[in-house]
Structure formats: structure tokens, C-alpha cells
Amino acid sequence: MLQPIRILALVAALWAAQANAATYAITFDTSAFTATDGWFDIQFNPGMDTAPGASASLSLTSFDGVLLLGGQPDGSVVANVGGAVAAASDPHGAQSMTLNFTNSTAFNAWLQPANFGSSVSFTVSFDGAWASATDNVGTAFSISMLDAGYNNLFGTPTVFDLRPGGAVDISNGGATVSAVPLPAAWTLLTSGLGLLAVGARRCKPELRLG
Questions:
Q1: Which H or E run contains 13?
Q2: How far apart are CA 119 and CA 31, in angstroms?
Q3: How far is CA 194 from CA 4, 94, 110, 172, in A?
Q4: How far apart, in whole angstroms, are the C-alpha atoms of residue 129 and residue 192?
Q5: pLDDT tens sequence across 41-79
Q6: Domain count, the chain
Q7: Is residue 15 part of a domain?
Q8: Looking at residues 114-132, what average pLDDT do you find?
Q9: At 188, which helix (H) or strand (E)?
């Protein structure tokens, strides 16, 4: 049976590992820009050609505005971006956006036109060799809310710097960002807490009368 101190160390290690979770929830409060046209500017760019391979998957999870047709000003995708956007004629219609990026070229971006509502939320997940690489060349994922003239509504972009070794440095840039723990990690964490509870009960001294 594991000693309580070992279980505590296991739980602490699992919890600390979530600081580098590969999935994040992002929300922008765009209530000050409701009913105005603008853009979602999403980029995934390596620092150098030698950056370890990485990928990013972004999904629109909540949006009370309207996605407009024609991603990119010329209607084309820039470099390594795939996925699909389904636009609706009004905010109550079915609309979705799922994009997949890789970093095998220097500039990978998607510029999505939209009519803003009060807020917009995304999830983004990162994967690839960057997490186990040992060099110091990373890849940056950024997302910005732009007005019709391509000015950043919040001054600076929200940036995720993927550092070799698995670290992710985040600059919020006007967004609320939170890590989303992986289901497997939550299972391990719950199991560790359960073992701790069992160990604590077994280590409790019995009270003897007489």
C-alpha cells in the first residue's frame, strides 16, 4: 500500500502537470462592439523553420453574433489551415467554425469575418513534437478580435507560446483564458485522492478501551 506521503506527492505532481494542459478555453467579452462588423484573426506561426512540428485545433464553442461568409479578404486560406466554417443568416441559426493548423510553413492564418455579439468563446488544443523537443525554438498561436479596419479591439492579441518541453506561455490580450484538464488526468487525480482517503483511514489508530 502506498504511504500517504507518496500519495500526496503523486496528487501534487498530477495537479502541477495541468499547468501545461494542452487544451484551453478562450472567451472575449465583445459587448462593447455588439452589432459591428469585424474579424477573427487566427494565426499559428513557427519562430523559425527549425521549430519542432506542432498542430493546433480551434473550435467555436459559443457566439451570439453572426459568422459572415468568405474567410480571408480574398476568400482563400493562407498556408496550412484546414477545417470548415458554417455561417448562418442570423445569430439564432446553426453556425460553427472548426479549424486545424500546422506549423510547417512560416505563416499560417485564417481571417474570419463576423458581426459581433456580446461575447465569443473558443477551445484550442495543441499537439505535436514541440512538447518533447529540447531546443528553444517554439511556435506561437494567436487570436485577435479586429474591427472592420483591421485594428485590434483589445490592443494586443491573445498569444500562446508553445515552448519545447511542453510549457505554454500565455499572454491574455483581452481574453479570459483557462486550462481544460484532460479527462485521463482527471481520472488519475481522482484515483490518487481516493487512495489518499483509503490510506488515511487505514493509518488511523484504533481506540482501545480498558
A1: helix 4-17
A2: 6
A3: 11, 42, 45, 35
A4: 29
A5: 999 999 888 899 999 999 999 999 988 876 655 445 578
A6: 1
A7: no
A8: 94
A9: helix 183-203
